[in-house]
Amino acid sequence: MELHAPKGTKDVTPKDSWRWQYIEGIIxxxxxxxxxxxxxxxxxxxxxxxxxxxxxxTDIVQKEMYTFLDKGERSVTLKPEGTAGIVRMxxxxxxxxxxxxxxxxxxxxPIFRYERPQAGRLREHHQFGIEIFGxxxxxxxxxxxxxxxxxxxxxxVKELELHINxxxxxxxxPLYNEKLVEFLTQHEHELCETCRDRMHKNPLxxxxxxxxxxxxxxxxxxxxxxxxCDECSHHLDELKSCLDAVGIPYVLDxxxxxxxxxxxxTVFEIISNDLxxxxxxxxxxxxxxxxxxxxxxxxxxxxxxxxxxRLLLLLQNQGAHMGEPASIDIYxxxxxxTARMKAFELAAFLRKQGLIVDIDHxxxxxxxxxxxxxKLNIRYVGILGDSELEMGALKLxxxxxxxxxxxxxxxxxxxxxx
Length: 418
Description:
Elements: H1 14-33, E1 37-38, E2 44-46, H2 47-55, H3 59-64, E3 67-69, E4 75-78, H4 83-92, E5 102-112, E6 124-133, H5 138-155, E7 160-166, H6 173-186, H7 193-201, H8 212-218, H9 230-245, E8 251-252, E9 264-272, E10 280-286, H10 290-293, E11 301-307, H11 308-317, E12 328-334, H12 337-352, E13 357-359, H13 366-374, E14 378-384, H14 386-391, E15 393-398, E16 404-408, H15 412-417
Parallel strand pairs: 1-5, 7-8, 12-13, 12-14
Antiparallel strand pairs: 2-4, 3-4, 5-6, 6-11, 7-9, 9-10, 10-11, 14-15, 15-16
Helix pairs in contact: 1-5, 5-9
């Protein structure tokens, strides 16, 4: 039987992993500037966390979760999104007792959703996300957006649009839901079966339906912005003022609701037209009730998620420069067993000095070693045979210029560094 990776998953081989590391390095660097620090949560959580936090009327909970019973007959789920686990960690570790706000990020976190694999969307993909707790002001929303855009700009992503909206809070959303249900009832026979069920349980979810007929109908639905309470309206105005103050253009888009039940007030998406149907590069918003819903004290919160596979695809489509694989400072090519042992000793010494060093472990001829070195990004090849051993030196060849020079072992590190 020939073994393959499961459908919807993808290997990252050593020749490709440097691109991931390049992106991750930029993300970590920018997060440090914003005083945001890394958190890590388990890949599996109790299923109840997502049913309570994400919402049992969402596509994720109804259709897409990898859920199973463990050997103790407990229902556990592979993490389908990042925020619920971070909130669980925030509550369980009583981080709310520390000085607020608490600002954290997760990176290269595996996310699992059972859905049809397509470009930029796999059954196992990886996310970068920001979560800020204990900050009620819209400036925190704007800081999340600013950070996301700075990362994308630093990576060289072009032609992005920021779309923002407010979906209200527990005080004003019921009024909007009444208007929405009244509208949907007039078109009930035209809606898909899922939306006919949702319109009575969670009508806002119908606005996130992917069925084309439902999308056409909902395009004429009442606009949530017209039902906002004073607090939500003020919050949205404050967000727009923050974005205007730092010169971030945006589109006020009343059709954005996001696909998760925990959002309140601000929701936003950063959109690219270079990702075909899956055009959202980054999405997030405010979830002021989720900490309390999962057993913690009342705590405002805001964050976003960004799929790394989708980001890599976008960078590839736009021809962005993603750095270069790390070059090897020196490849030591020994001739004979005695030289091979000395090469091993020299490599260990040079690595301790901070150089990137490789040696032959296959027993190739010197000709084959040069052929191998020519396929890699190697600065110098050091030939080590009997005559070089007698001199206590390497014959060092610059692989760019072709120039050769005899360099004593004692001076090898300084020569390469200079």
